[in-house]
């Protein structure tokens, strides 16, 4: 195909660039900007990316620091661009927002921003937006190894800053273009360094060449292996929060999220299929995708590049970079370019080169600006009516108010409040005790969220069940509600609860010791999510701690206080510190974790077990190893790593699967195996794991790793899964196979389950009903030991999301968490990742319990 043959040109240019640098830059401009190839079309005072970097774009992969430096170089040379550092990644790389618009607009940018913000206020008339420019957001490299977009960001910015045509000047007068040039700088550098390190000269197009085959964890995810494209609603990562704050400053009218897909594809842009549209979103929003698509098609038609639309990718939840704007009256678009994953690679369409992939992304980006300017009036109407319709839609909802909060768990209550404030959702303090759906909420420890507000659609997304979808073929998870995943008490009221003052900021953490220096012990209620952080801090200071395996009530300076099972007791006797020094250490842990610690003067309880009971068990200090490497599900093990690092502040060793038979395992109390393939773990390693578990180790597995542990006889259990009647499937239509596979896939659902709250792995869970995530096809049979099935999916589970009847029957009544006792140790088996996407706090506390209480979780050891 001729357009692929033309894509070889930049590779030839790259080889000649050292001899003909001026010609190279000119030829590159002609290639990437064929519509403006004349030399006088660009301001010569503005350096091209090639001139600044010293190599032609597409001849190598640009590191993040170089990308940042180029955007700052543009800002030094032009008054059309302003660069802001809005945050840093976990590895310390800067996060940027670059604003490009006409110099006259830059001079009144804050005025423009405020004027534009009137569009999202239902009380303001459409005319309040006046002549403010249309706002376009171009987001690049959310997946670090989808690298064409980062290079395209530099070229697109250069074009808008340097091009002198009347059309470009019109765009900049009528648009504010926001660039997020590298949403995932840590992953991008991981990929760039790999591709550059293994690049050959001349480049190898062999798909098996090392340049094209990244090792674990690849560059897709961030430092903690987070899928940042699915973090827009949960906002678990410090990479995500600054850009969402910038989003809410501007509320763009159009937002493009640049991606890549397999090398044998072509180019995809929206509209998406109607079956993947949300009934929460007005049809007009999706129709505008079709309008914008005409400009994308024109841009790619001009290059002769193949593309397609309307066949896949979800568009019904606000979790993605291309759907979050849909829930704010914008036109959000995913674009996907076939990836060369290196400088050139063989594909079914011929040689796919890195420059060719970059050029398509540049064309789409410029086509977006062209379309947004041309459709400005319609886009403004769309955003204004979107928020007005939100109030009308909210008025039709059965729930009028959501209430959330738990007096026993201020940490998770505060965390959910923080999330709502980050999304600019109206929240009010609960000023009177109420009972909703049988749950009691107390003034001073709970909050109300009115449904009748401009952000209704996000309120619904966070608290309510996924609305029915007209279709059953999905690309990603079909349930995305945050509140059930957090595990904090919440309920929807059919009557309006006004609440008190609107909350605009988080209350301060209240970590302290109540009652001063203890005469007998210090106690922390385990129902507070941050109690685990306090325990890790205390053990890190060398203090001995115990856990009460039954509830007790103790006399404190605040009167009688009831402590739940799992609550931590730090005796005064036998500690390396005494008196004031011990109090200082405990107080420091309380402040660091934000928990209330009660000083107790006696070991005699008012109710329940006394503190010297056998039911108050000594805890060992955890030493955790996370198994991560080839074959391991990076996002799953990354969630465990994040939990230990960022919540517990508990250091963990990271082992490759092939190390399991080689390193001394006796230094670890806990090993975590997430989902993945463990074929590289040989018989020697399996034998070593068996010996270690038998000697007292706790092996934590989930998903396919749980299945593997049972197959390797590391854990007792019948074959996972259930026998099913296959039915008459001897013949099916060839054209239906894709849809059938999608329908039968478990796409991520919230299911109702029953939890044994008396089991140490369930300590801190507020009640027997627990929401769990089901993301894979693995099902576990309940344990033969009646005391060892900790969490079991309901026989008729409540489902939030889409789950086929066949899959519903498979998971109904299956075990979600069980313990297999082995000698002095055990294997803790989860059916799914308990720390899924880093916001499933209702179940990640089960993983926390496995880490701290795992050696005490066997039935014989649980008797007091």
The proportion of residues in beta strands is 15-25%
Q: How is the biggest beta sheet arranged?
A: 10 strands, mixed
| Poorly predicted runs of 5 or more residues | 1-23, 722-727
Which value, in Å, is the CA radius of gyration?
A: 29 Å
- The level of helicity is 25-40%
Structural class: alpha+beta
Total E-strand runs:
34
Write the layout of secondary structure elements.
Layout: H1 2-6, H2 9-16, H3 21-32, H4 49-53, H5 64-77, E1 81-88, E2 94-100, H6 103-106, H7 109-117, E3 134-139, H8 148-162, H9 166-174, E4 175-180, H10 185-197, H11 241-250, E5 254-261, E6 267-269, H12 283-301, E7 331-338, E8 344-347, E9 350-353, H13 354-374, H14 376-395, E10 401-404, H15 410-422, E11 428-429, E12 434-436, E13 439-441, E14 447-450, H16 456-463, H17 482-486, E15 490-493, E16 512-514, E17 521-524, H18 531-540, E18 546-548, E19 552-556, E20 559-563, E21 568-571, H19 579-593, E22 596-600, E23 607-608, E24 616-618, E25 624-627, H20 634-648, E26 652-655, E27 670-673, H21 683-694, E28 698-702, H22 704-711, H23 737-744, E29 749-755, E30 769-774, E31 789-793, E32 799-800, H24 805-811, E33 815-822, E34 825-830, H25 841-853, H26 859-862
Parallel strand pairs: 3-4, 3-5, 5-7, 16-22, 25-26, 25-27, 27-28, 28-34
Antiparallel strand pairs: 1-2, 2-4, 6-7, 8-9, 10-14, 10-15, 11-14, 12-13, 17-21, 17-22, 18-21, 18-24, 19-20, 19-23, 29-30, 29-31, 29-32, 31-33, 33-34
């Amino acid at each position: 195909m001729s357009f692929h043959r033309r894509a070889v040109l930049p590779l030839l240019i790259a080889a000649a660039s050292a001899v003909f640098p001026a010609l190279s830059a000119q030829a590159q401009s002609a290639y990437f900007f064929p519509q403006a190839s004349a030399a006088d079309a660009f301001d010569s005072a503005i350096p091209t990316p090639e001139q600044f970097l010293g190599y032609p774009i597409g001849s190598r992969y640009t590191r993040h620091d170089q990308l940042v430096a180029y955007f700052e170089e543009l800002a030094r040379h032009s008054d059309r661009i302003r660069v802001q550092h809005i945050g840093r990644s976990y590895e310390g790389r800067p996060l940027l927002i670059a604003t490009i618009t006409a110099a006259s607009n830059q001079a009144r940018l804050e005025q423009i921003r405020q004027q534009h913000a009137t569009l999202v206020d239902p009380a303001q008339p459409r005319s309040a937006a006046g002549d403010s420019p249309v706002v376009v957001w171009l987001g690049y490299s959310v997946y670090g190894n989808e690298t064409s977009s980062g290079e395209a960001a530099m070229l697109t910015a250069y074009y808008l800053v340097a091009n002198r045509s009347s059309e470009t000047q019109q765009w900049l007068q009528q648009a504010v273009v926001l660039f997020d040039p590298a949403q995932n700088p840590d992953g991008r550098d991981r990929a760039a360094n790999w591709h550059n390190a293994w690049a050959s000269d001349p480049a190898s197009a062999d798909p098996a060449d090392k340049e094209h085959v990244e090792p674990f964890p690849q560059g897709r995810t961030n430092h903690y292996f987070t899928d940042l494209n699915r973090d827009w609603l949960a906002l678990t990562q410090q990479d995500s929060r600054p850009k969402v704050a910038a989003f809410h400053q501007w509320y763009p009218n159009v937002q493009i999220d640049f991606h890549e897909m397999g090398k044998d594809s072509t180019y995809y842009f929206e509209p998406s299929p109607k079956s993947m549209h949300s009934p929460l979103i007005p049809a007009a929003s999706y129709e505008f995708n079709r309008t914008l698509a005409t400009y994308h098609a024109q841009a790619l038609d001009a290059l002769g590049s193949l593309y397609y639309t309307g066949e896949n990718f979800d568009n019904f939840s606000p979790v993605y970079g291309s759907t979050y704007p849909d829930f704010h009256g914008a036109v959000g678009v995913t674009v996907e370019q076939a990836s060369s994953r290196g400088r050139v690679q063989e594909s079914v369409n011929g040689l796919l080169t890195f420059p060719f992939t970059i050029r398509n992304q540049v064309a789409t980006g410029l086509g977006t600006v062209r379309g947004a300017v041309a459709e400005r009036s319609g886009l403004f109407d769309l955003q204004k009516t979107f928020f007005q319709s939100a109030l009308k839609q909210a008025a039709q909802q059965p729930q009028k108010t959501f209430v959330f909060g738990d007096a026993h768990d201020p940490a998770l209550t505060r965390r959910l409040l923080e999330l709502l404030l980050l999304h600019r959702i109206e929240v009010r303090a609960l000023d009177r005790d109420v009972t909703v759906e049988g749950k009691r909420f107390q003034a001073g420890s709970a909050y109300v969220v009115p449904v009748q507000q401009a952000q209704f659609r996000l309120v619904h997304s966070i608290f309510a069940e996924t609305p029915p979808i007209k279709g059953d073929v999905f690309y990603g998870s079909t349930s995305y509600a945050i509140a059930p995943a957090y595990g904090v008490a919440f309920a929807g009221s059919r009557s309006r609860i006004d609440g008190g003052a609107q909350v605009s900021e988080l209350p301060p953490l209240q970590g302290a010791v109540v009652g001063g220096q203890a005469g007998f012990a210090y106690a922390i209620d385990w129902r507070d999510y941050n109690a685990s952080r306090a325990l890790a801090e205390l053990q890190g200071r060398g203090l001995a701690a115990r856990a009460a395996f039954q509830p007790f009530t103790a006399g404190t300076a605040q009167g009688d206080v009831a402590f739940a099972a799992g609550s931590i007791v730090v005796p005064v006797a036998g500690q390396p510190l005494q008196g004031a020094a011990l109090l200082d250490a405990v107080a420091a842990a309380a402040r660091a974790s934000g928990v209330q610690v009660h000083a107790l003067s006696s070991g005699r309880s008012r109710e329940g077990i006394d503190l010297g009971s056998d039911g108050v068990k000594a805890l060992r200090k955890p030493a955790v190893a996370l198994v991560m490497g080839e074959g391991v599900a990076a996002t799953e093990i990354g969630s465990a790593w994040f939990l230990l690092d960022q919540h517990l502040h508990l250091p963990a060793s990271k082992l490759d699967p092939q190390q399991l038979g080689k390193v001394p395992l006796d230094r670890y109390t806990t090993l975590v195996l997430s989902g993945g393939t463990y074929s590289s773990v040989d018989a020697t390693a399996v034998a070593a794991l068996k010996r270690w578990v038998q000697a007292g180790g706790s092996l934590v597995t989930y998903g396919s790793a749980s299945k593997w542990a049972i197959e390797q006889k590391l854990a007792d259990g019948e074959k996972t899964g259930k026998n099913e009647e296959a039915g008459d499937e001897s013949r099916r239509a060839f054209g239906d196979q894709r849809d059938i596979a999608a329908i039968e896939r478990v796409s991520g659902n919230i299911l109702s389950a029953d939890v044994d709250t008396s089991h140490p792995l369930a300590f801190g869970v507020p009640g027997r009903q627990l929401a769990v995530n089901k993301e894979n096809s693995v099902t576990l049979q309940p344990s033969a030991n009646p005391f060892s099935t900790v969490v079991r999916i309901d026989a008729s589970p409540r489902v939030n999301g889409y789950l086929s009847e066949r899959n519903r029957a498979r998971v109904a009544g299956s075990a979600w968490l069980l313990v297999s006792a082995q000698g002095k140790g055990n294997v803790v088996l989860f059916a799914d990742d308990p720390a899924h996407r880093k916001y499933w706090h209702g179940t990640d506390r089960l993983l926390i319990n496995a880490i701290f209480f795992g050696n005490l979780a066997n039935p014989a050891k649980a008797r007091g």
